[in-house]
Design brief:
The protein is mainly beta and 361 residues long. Helix content is 3%, strand content 35%. Strands 3-4-2-1-7-8-9-6-5 form a nine-stranded mixed beta sheet. β11 and β12 form a beta hairpin.
Length: 361
Protein backbone atom coordinates (compact mmCIF):
# COMPACT_ATOMS: atom_id res chain seq x y z
CA UNK A 1 0.00 0.00 0.00
CA UNK A 2 1.01 3.57 -0.56
CA UNK A 3 1.67 5.44 2.64
CA UNK A 4 2.17 8.92 1.19
CA UNK A 5 0.30 11.42 -0.91
CA UNK A 6 0.77 10.94 -4.65
CA UNK A 7 0.84 13.52 -7.41
CA UNK A 8 -1.48 12.86 -10.35
CA UNK A 9 -1.47 14.67 -13.71
CA UNK A 10 -4.05 15.09 -16.47
CA UNK A 11 -3.12 16.47 -19.89
CA UNK A 12 -5.84 17.21 -22.43
CA UNK A 13 -5.61 18.08 -26.10
CA UNK A 14 -8.89 18.24 -28.02
CA UNK A 15 -10.52 14.85 -27.42
CA UNK A 16 -7.37 13.09 -26.16
CA UNK A 17 -6.65 12.75 -22.44
CA UNK A 18 -3.41 11.42 -20.92
CA UNK A 19 -3.27 10.56 -17.23
CA UNK A 20 -0.08 9.91 -15.24
CA UNK A 21 0.84 9.18 -11.64
CA UNK A 22 4.15 9.83 -9.91
CA UNK A 23 4.20 6.22 -8.68
CA UNK A 24 5.84 2.87 -9.36
CA UNK A 25 2.61 1.23 -10.52
CA UNK A 26 -0.62 2.26 -12.21
CA UNK A 27 -3.33 3.89 -10.09
CA UNK A 28 -6.95 3.05 -10.88
CA UNK A 29 -9.53 5.55 -9.67
CA UNK A 30 -13.09 4.90 -10.72
CA UNK A 31 -13.15 4.33 -14.47
CA UNK A 32 -9.81 6.07 -15.06
CA UNK A 33 -6.27 4.68 -14.93
CA UNK A 34 -3.33 6.93 -14.11
CA UNK A 35 -0.26 5.33 -15.64
CA UNK A 36 2.86 5.07 -13.51
CA UNK A 37 5.46 7.44 -14.91
CA UNK A 38 8.67 9.28 -14.21
CA UNK A 39 7.02 12.62 -13.64
CA UNK A 40 7.41 15.41 -11.10
CA UNK A 41 6.40 19.01 -10.63
CA UNK A 42 7.43 22.11 -8.76
CA UNK A 43 5.75 23.12 -5.54
CA UNK A 44 2.55 25.02 -6.18
CA UNK A 45 2.61 28.70 -5.24
CA UNK A 46 -0.51 30.61 -4.40
CA UNK A 47 0.06 34.35 -4.65
CA UNK A 48 -1.98 37.46 -5.29
CA UNK A 49 -0.16 37.91 -8.60
CA UNK A 50 -1.26 35.50 -11.30
CA UNK A 51 1.97 35.94 -13.23
CA UNK A 52 3.78 34.09 -10.44
CA UNK A 53 1.36 31.16 -10.32
CA UNK A 54 3.43 29.10 -12.72
CA UNK A 55 5.05 25.71 -12.38
CA UNK A 56 7.24 23.29 -14.28
CA UNK A 57 6.52 19.63 -14.89
CA UNK A 58 9.35 17.26 -15.77
CA UNK A 59 8.72 13.91 -17.46
CA UNK A 60 10.85 11.19 -19.00
CA UNK A 61 11.21 11.58 -22.77
CA UNK A 62 13.74 10.12 -25.21
CA UNK A 63 14.84 12.69 -27.74
CA UNK A 64 16.22 9.96 -30.01
CA UNK A 65 14.31 6.77 -29.17
CA UNK A 66 15.29 3.42 -30.63
CA UNK A 67 13.26 0.27 -31.19
CA UNK A 68 11.59 -1.58 -29.60
CA UNK A 69 8.87 0.80 -28.48
CA UNK A 70 8.15 -1.17 -25.31
CA UNK A 71 11.31 0.33 -23.87
CA UNK A 72 10.07 3.90 -24.32
CA UNK A 73 8.76 5.92 -21.37
CA UNK A 74 4.98 5.95 -20.98
CA UNK A 75 5.19 9.75 -21.28
CA UNK A 76 6.77 9.55 -24.74
CA UNK A 77 3.37 10.16 -26.34
CA UNK A 78 2.99 13.38 -24.32
CA UNK A 79 6.30 14.75 -25.58
CA UNK A 80 5.34 13.91 -29.14
CA UNK A 81 2.60 16.52 -28.91
CA UNK A 82 5.27 19.19 -29.46
CA UNK A 83 7.70 17.30 -31.70
CA UNK A 84 8.46 17.47 -34.55
CA UNK A 85 5.70 20.07 -35.06
CA UNK A 86 4.29 22.46 -32.50
CA UNK A 87 0.53 22.05 -31.96
CA UNK A 88 -1.97 24.60 -33.21
CA UNK A 89 -4.35 24.03 -30.30
CA UNK A 90 -4.24 24.48 -26.54
CA UNK A 91 -3.08 21.76 -24.13
CA UNK A 92 -4.58 21.94 -20.65
CA UNK A 93 -2.98 20.63 -17.47
CA UNK A 94 -4.55 19.54 -14.18
CA UNK A 95 -2.41 18.67 -11.16
CA UNK A 96 -4.02 16.57 -8.42
CA UNK A 97 -3.05 15.00 -5.11
CA UNK A 98 -4.27 11.60 -3.98
CA UNK A 99 -3.86 9.36 -0.95
CA UNK A 100 -4.59 5.77 -2.08
CA UNK A 101 -5.28 4.52 1.43
CA UNK A 102 -8.28 6.81 1.87
CA UNK A 103 -11.73 6.76 0.35
CA UNK A 104 -11.47 10.36 -0.82
CA UNK A 105 -11.30 11.33 -4.48
CA UNK A 106 -8.21 13.18 -5.75
CA UNK A 107 -7.99 16.88 -4.90
CA UNK A 108 -7.38 19.36 -7.69
CA UNK A 109 -4.42 21.54 -6.68
CA UNK A 110 -3.64 23.47 -9.86
CA UNK A 111 -5.12 24.02 -13.31
CA UNK A 112 -3.62 25.74 -16.30
CA UNK A 113 -2.05 25.30 -19.71
CA UNK A 114 1.19 23.91 -21.08
CA UNK A 115 2.81 26.86 -22.81
CA UNK A 116 6.43 25.98 -23.53
CA UNK A 117 8.32 22.65 -23.71
CA UNK A 118 12.08 22.28 -23.26
CA UNK A 119 13.81 19.05 -24.30
CA UNK A 120 17.01 17.39 -23.20
CA UNK A 121 18.28 13.94 -24.22
CA UNK A 122 16.10 12.02 -21.75
CA UNK A 123 13.75 14.57 -20.21
CA UNK A 124 11.00 16.98 -21.18
CA UNK A 125 10.39 20.05 -19.05
CA UNK A 126 6.97 21.64 -19.55
CA UNK A 127 6.45 25.23 -18.48
CA UNK A 128 2.85 25.67 -17.34
CA UNK A 129 0.88 28.85 -16.81
CA UNK A 130 -2.44 29.45 -15.11
CA UNK A 131 -3.19 32.20 -17.63
CA UNK A 132 -4.70 31.19 -20.99
CA UNK A 133 -2.09 30.82 -23.76
CA UNK A 134 -4.15 32.82 -26.25
CA UNK A 135 -4.11 36.58 -26.21
CA UNK A 136 -6.95 38.43 -24.55
CA UNK A 137 -8.10 41.99 -25.00
CA UNK A 138 -10.82 42.79 -22.45
CA UNK A 139 -13.06 45.82 -22.79
CA UNK A 140 -12.03 46.45 -26.37
CA UNK A 141 -14.79 48.16 -28.34
CA UNK A 142 -15.01 49.46 -31.90
CA UNK A 143 -12.13 51.46 -33.36
CA UNK A 144 -12.64 54.52 -35.53
CA UNK A 145 -10.57 53.53 -38.54
CA UNK A 146 -11.11 53.01 -42.25
CA UNK A 147 -10.40 49.27 -42.11
CA UNK A 148 -12.85 46.98 -40.33
CA UNK A 149 -11.77 46.14 -36.80
CA UNK A 150 -13.88 42.98 -36.53
CA UNK A 151 -12.54 39.43 -36.47
CA UNK A 152 -13.94 37.43 -39.37
CA UNK A 153 -16.23 34.46 -38.54
CA UNK A 154 -15.98 35.33 -34.84
CA UNK A 155 -18.87 36.20 -32.54
CA UNK A 156 -19.17 38.80 -29.83
CA UNK A 157 -18.53 42.51 -29.74
CA UNK A 158 -15.39 42.26 -31.91
CA UNK A 159 -16.68 39.54 -34.23
CA UNK A 160 -18.36 40.01 -37.60
CA UNK A 161 -20.58 36.91 -37.14
CA UNK A 162 -20.01 35.74 -40.70
CA UNK A 163 -21.17 32.08 -40.81
CA UNK A 164 -18.23 30.03 -42.11
CA UNK A 165 -20.53 27.11 -42.93
CA UNK A 166 -23.05 29.21 -44.85
CA UNK A 167 -26.23 31.09 -43.98
CA UNK A 168 -29.05 29.06 -42.42
CA UNK A 169 -32.48 29.44 -44.05
CA UNK A 170 -35.34 27.59 -42.29
CA UNK A 171 -38.03 26.60 -44.77
CA UNK A 172 -41.37 24.82 -44.97
CA UNK A 173 -41.80 22.83 -48.15
CA UNK A 174 -44.69 23.68 -50.49
CA UNK A 175 -43.82 21.14 -53.18
CA UNK A 176 -41.71 17.99 -53.59
CA UNK A 177 -41.03 16.45 -56.99
CA UNK A 178 -38.27 13.98 -57.81
CA UNK A 179 -35.07 15.38 -56.34
CA UNK A 180 -36.34 18.98 -56.18
CA UNK A 181 -38.02 20.79 -53.32
CA UNK A 182 -39.81 24.14 -53.24
CA UNK A 183 -40.32 26.63 -50.42
CA UNK A 184 -41.05 30.35 -50.40
CA UNK A 185 -38.18 30.96 -47.97
CA UNK A 186 -35.70 29.80 -50.61
CA UNK A 187 -36.27 32.88 -52.78
CA UNK A 188 -33.44 35.43 -52.91
CA UNK A 189 -31.03 33.91 -50.38
CA UNK A 190 -28.25 35.99 -48.83
CA UNK A 191 -25.80 33.84 -50.78
CA UNK A 192 -26.14 31.21 -53.49
CA UNK A 193 -27.53 27.84 -52.45
CA UNK A 194 -25.47 25.99 -55.06
CA UNK A 195 -22.72 24.27 -53.16
CA UNK A 196 -24.73 24.29 -49.93
CA UNK A 197 -26.99 21.60 -48.56
CA UNK A 198 -30.42 20.84 -47.12
CA UNK A 199 -30.77 19.10 -43.76
CA UNK A 200 -33.77 17.64 -41.94
CA UNK A 201 -34.71 15.18 -39.21
CA UNK A 202 -36.13 11.79 -40.12
CA UNK A 203 -39.92 11.65 -39.81
CA UNK A 204 -39.92 8.41 -37.81
CA UNK A 205 -36.56 8.60 -36.04
CA UNK A 206 -35.87 12.13 -34.70
CA UNK A 207 -32.28 11.17 -33.86
CA UNK A 208 -31.54 10.45 -37.54
CA UNK A 209 -30.49 13.45 -39.63
CA UNK A 210 -30.56 13.53 -43.43
CA UNK A 211 -28.38 15.81 -45.54
CA UNK A 212 -28.41 16.41 -49.29
CA UNK A 213 -26.12 18.64 -51.34
CA UNK A 214 -27.71 21.37 -53.44
CA UNK A 215 -26.72 21.25 -57.12
CA UNK A 216 -29.02 23.89 -58.64
CA UNK A 217 -31.30 26.72 -57.55
CA UNK A 218 -33.94 28.72 -59.36
CA UNK A 219 -36.50 30.93 -57.66
CA UNK A 220 -38.04 29.03 -54.77
CA UNK A 221 -36.84 25.60 -55.98
CA UNK A 222 -33.58 23.83 -55.30
CA UNK A 223 -32.33 20.58 -56.83
CA UNK A 224 -30.68 18.03 -54.57
CA UNK A 225 -27.83 15.69 -55.48
CA UNK A 226 -29.78 12.67 -54.25
CA UNK A 227 -33.35 11.59 -53.56
CA UNK A 228 -35.43 13.55 -51.08
CA UNK A 229 -36.05 10.57 -48.82
CA UNK A 230 -39.12 10.99 -46.62
CA UNK A 231 -39.65 14.68 -47.38
CA UNK A 232 -43.22 15.77 -48.10
CA UNK A 233 -45.22 18.98 -48.41
CA UNK A 234 -45.27 20.78 -45.07
CA UNK A 235 -41.97 19.30 -43.89
CA UNK A 236 -39.54 21.60 -42.09
CA UNK A 237 -35.99 21.72 -43.46
CA UNK A 238 -32.84 23.75 -42.90
CA UNK A 239 -31.24 25.02 -46.10
CA UNK A 240 -27.67 26.25 -45.95
CA UNK A 241 -26.17 28.52 -48.56
CA UNK A 242 -22.71 27.80 -49.90
CA UNK A 243 -20.19 28.06 -47.11
CA UNK A 244 -16.80 29.71 -47.19
CA UNK A 245 -14.86 26.50 -46.58
CA UNK A 246 -13.00 25.01 -49.55
CA UNK A 247 -12.14 21.31 -49.40
CA UNK A 248 -9.92 19.22 -51.60
CA UNK A 249 -7.37 16.44 -51.86
CA UNK A 250 -3.65 17.08 -51.75
CA UNK A 251 -2.21 16.04 -55.11
CA UNK A 252 1.40 16.85 -54.34
CA UNK A 253 3.36 17.65 -51.21
CA UNK A 254 6.44 19.83 -51.45
CA UNK A 255 9.79 18.62 -50.20
CA UNK A 256 9.98 21.59 -47.83
CA UNK A 257 6.94 20.21 -45.93
CA UNK A 258 5.22 23.58 -46.38
CA UNK A 259 3.89 23.65 -49.94
CA UNK A 260 0.77 21.73 -50.93
CA UNK A 261 -0.71 21.34 -54.40
CA UNK A 262 -4.50 21.12 -54.07
CA UNK A 263 -6.39 21.26 -57.39
CA UNK A 264 -9.62 22.28 -55.61
CA UNK A 265 -7.85 25.44 -54.41
CA UNK A 266 -7.49 26.72 -57.99
CA UNK A 267 -10.05 29.34 -59.00
CA UNK A 268 -11.47 29.80 -55.50
CA UNK A 269 -14.02 32.52 -54.89
CA UNK A 270 -11.74 34.29 -52.41
CA UNK A 271 -7.99 34.25 -51.97
CA UNK A 272 -6.80 31.89 -49.25
CA UNK A 273 -3.85 34.09 -48.24
CA UNK A 274 -4.06 34.75 -44.51
CA UNK A 275 -6.66 32.03 -44.11
CA UNK A 276 -6.45 28.73 -42.27
CA UNK A 277 -5.85 25.21 -43.53
CA UNK A 278 -7.04 22.30 -41.39
CA UNK A 279 -6.97 18.52 -41.61
CA UNK A 280 -7.63 15.47 -39.43
CA UNK A 281 -4.57 13.43 -38.53
CA UNK A 282 -4.51 9.65 -38.46
CA UNK A 283 -4.77 9.74 -34.65
CA UNK A 284 -7.96 11.83 -34.81
CA UNK A 285 -6.47 15.18 -33.82
CA UNK A 286 -7.38 18.19 -35.96
CA UNK A 287 -4.48 20.43 -36.97
CA UNK A 288 -4.64 24.00 -38.26
CA UNK A 289 -2.01 26.08 -40.03
CA UNK A 290 -1.99 29.68 -41.31
CA UNK A 291 -1.80 29.97 -45.10
CA UNK A 292 1.03 32.28 -46.14
CA UNK A 293 0.58 32.22 -49.93
CA UNK A 294 -1.98 30.98 -52.45
CA UNK A 295 -1.65 30.57 -56.20
CA UNK A 296 -5.24 30.77 -57.39
CA UNK A 297 -4.21 29.51 -60.83
CA UNK A 298 -2.48 26.29 -59.78
CA UNK A 299 -4.05 25.71 -56.36
CA UNK A 300 -0.70 25.71 -54.54
CA UNK A 301 -0.67 26.95 -50.95
CA UNK A 302 2.23 27.51 -48.59
CA UNK A 303 1.84 27.03 -44.84
CA UNK A 304 3.56 28.85 -42.01
CA UNK A 305 4.86 25.57 -40.56
CA UNK A 306 4.46 21.89 -41.31
CA UNK A 307 2.52 19.14 -39.60
CA UNK A 308 1.94 15.42 -39.27
CA UNK A 309 0.35 13.40 -42.09
CA UNK A 310 0.71 16.16 -44.69
CA UNK A 311 1.08 14.08 -47.85
CA UNK A 312 -0.56 13.29 -51.16
CA UNK A 313 -4.09 11.89 -50.85
CA UNK A 314 -4.88 13.82 -47.66
CA UNK A 315 -8.18 15.71 -47.63
CA UNK A 316 -7.78 19.25 -46.33
CA UNK A 317 -10.08 22.22 -45.76
CA UNK A 318 -9.24 25.89 -46.12
CA UNK A 319 -11.12 28.88 -44.73
CA UNK A 320 -10.28 32.21 -46.41
CA UNK A 321 -9.50 35.31 -44.40
CA UNK A 322 -11.08 38.73 -44.92
CA UNK A 323 -9.01 41.80 -45.98
CA UNK A 324 -11.24 43.97 -43.72
CA UNK A 325 -12.21 46.30 -46.56
CA UNK A 326 -15.64 47.49 -47.66
CA UNK A 327 -15.28 45.64 -50.98
CA UNK A 328 -14.44 42.38 -49.17
CA UNK A 329 -17.43 42.76 -46.86
CA UNK A 330 -19.76 43.49 -49.79
CA UNK A 331 -18.50 40.38 -51.58
CA UNK A 332 -19.37 38.23 -48.57
CA UNK A 333 -22.64 39.86 -47.46
CA UNK A 334 -25.65 41.33 -49.25
CA UNK A 335 -25.91 44.05 -46.59
CA UNK A 336 -22.36 45.15 -45.66
CA UNK A 337 -23.67 48.43 -44.26
CA UNK A 338 -25.07 46.45 -41.32
CA UNK A 339 -21.86 44.59 -40.60
CA UNK A 340 -18.82 46.55 -41.73
CA UNK A 341 -16.91 47.90 -38.75
CA UNK A 342 -14.72 50.45 -40.51
CA UNK A 343 -15.28 54.11 -41.25
CA UNK A 344 -15.10 54.34 -45.02
CA UNK A 345 -15.65 58.12 -45.03
CA UNK A 346 -12.94 58.86 -42.49
CA UNK A 347 -10.64 61.48 -44.09
CA UNK A 348 -7.13 60.29 -44.80
CA UNK A 349 -4.49 62.85 -45.75
CA UNK A 350 -0.74 62.44 -46.02
CA UNK A 351 0.88 64.98 -43.66
CA UNK A 352 4.17 64.79 -45.57
CA UNK A 353 3.00 65.02 -49.18
CA UNK A 354 0.10 67.36 -48.56
CA UNK A 355 1.83 69.44 -45.92
CA UNK A 356 -0.86 69.02 -43.30
CA UNK A 357 0.14 69.62 -39.69
CA UNK A 358 0.12 66.53 -37.46
CA UNK A 359 -1.17 68.42 -34.45
CA UNK A 360 -4.25 70.41 -33.57
CA UNK A 361 -4.54 73.64 -31.72
Amino acid sequence: MFDAELHLFIFRRQGVTLRFAAADRDIEIGEHVYHAAQIERDAIKQTAERAKDKLKIRVAYLLAPVEPTDGWPVTQALGDWWRPHIPSDEISVICLSYRPGSDELPDVEWMGWAVQPAYSDAQLEINCDSNPPHGSAPNQGPKWQRACFKTVYSTGIRGCNLPAGGYLVPAELTAVAGNTITAEALVNPKRTFVGGYVQWQDATDPELTHRRAITAHEGATVMLADDVGDLAVGAQVSAYTRGFWVTGEVAQHGVDDLTLQVPAFAGTEFSLVGGTLSWTRSDGLVEERPIMSHNNTTGAVTLLWGGADLSGGLFVSALPNCPNTWAACAARRPDPELHYGGAIYKPVRDPIVQGVAMSWG
